[in-house]
Specification:
This protein is of the alpha/beta class. The protein is built from 10 helices and 9 strands. The protein has a single domain, classed as 2-enoyl-CoA Hydratase, Chain A, domain 1, CATH 3.90.226.
Length: 273
């Protein structure tokens, strides 16, 4: 792209959109068939500790409010998540993945470059996941840096954390828990670690990712999800509410033998007699 074309493309964006790209790696596009919010998860997922400034990071305190705003916005029709991450903080990654999986807004994820470690739950959290053929995904057990106590409680903590990740991935993809754990414990494939590296086609064959595709495929799938939502909403508007008036029992009309008016009290009747 020439400098003139690049300048024209930047002039077509509003100042708010440019700031959103520069600061958050996100943009809302309203020039297509529907309004789509594009969210990028790149570099390392930053958790409770701030990483060095030279690291390319995705801050979860930036992503989570965006997801809430997207879900509550009536102007945004769908969410496209672009992934190229080496992993990062487990709890921060799971927090983002849980929010995405719980959204009613149509969502599609696209793995570009890599979706490693905690990037795997992020990739499968969308309603439909795609991966390009050249991308890879690394599956390995939970690791921890810093001081580690060699006590049984530490091993139990690792097992519980690994179980959380495995359960989420298996609930949001087609891979089984046994196969996922088997891939994470493979020896001899990674130089200084245990685990498995899957390319795009292998990730689809294992049932981890739904489809092999590129950007146009992901957007087409997202448009299809939005079409279904719009059609469902239109059907609900056309269908009139159920009339329950016939089901209510109406009082029977009085017969000819039934006296009209309020009956007299028994005491008054006896006095007249």
């Amino acid at each position: 792209m020439s400098e003139d074309e690049n300048e024209e493309s930047r002039e077509s964006l509003s100042p708010e959109q440019i700031d959103s790209i520069n600061n958050l790696g996100a943009i809302t596009s309203a020039k297509g068939k529907y309004v789509i919010h594009c969210l990028s998860v790149i570099g390392q997922i930053e958790g409770h500790q701030t990483l060095p400034p030279q690291n390319k990071t995705t801050k979860y305190e930036h992503i989570m409010p965006q997801l809430v705003a997207i879900e509550e916005s009536a102007d945004i029709d769908g969410l496209l998540i672009l992934l190229n991450t080496v992993g990062g903080d487990v709890e921060a990654g799971l927090a983002i993945a849980e929010l995405v999986s719980g959204m009613k807004t149509p969502t599609v994820s696209l793995v570009l470059g890599g979706g490693h470690s905690i990037g795997v739950p992020l990739a499968v959290s969308a309603k439909r996941s795609f991966i390009v053929p050249s991308a890879t995904m690394t599956i390995h057990p939970v690791r921890m840096s810093g001081l580690v106590l060699g006590v049984p409680q530490t091993l139990s903590y690792f097992d519980k954390m690994q179980e959380r990740i495995t359960r989420f991935v298996c609930c949001n993809s087609k891979i089984s828990a046994e196969r996922f754990l088997e891939l994470s414990r493979t020896m001899g494939e990674l130089v200084m670690d245990v685990g498995t590296v899957l390319d795009g086609e292998q990730a689809v064959n294992e049932g981890l990712i739904d489809e092999l595709g590129n950007l146009s495929d992901a957007i087409a799938c997202l448009y299809g999800q939005i079409d279904e939502v719009k059609k469902r909403e239109k059907t609900q508007e056309i269908t009139p509410p159920a009339d329950n008036s016939d089901s209510e029992q109406k009082p029977e009309p009085p017969s000819a033998d039934t006296p009209v008016g309020k009956p007299k009290p028994e005491k008054e009747v006896e006095e007249n007699v």
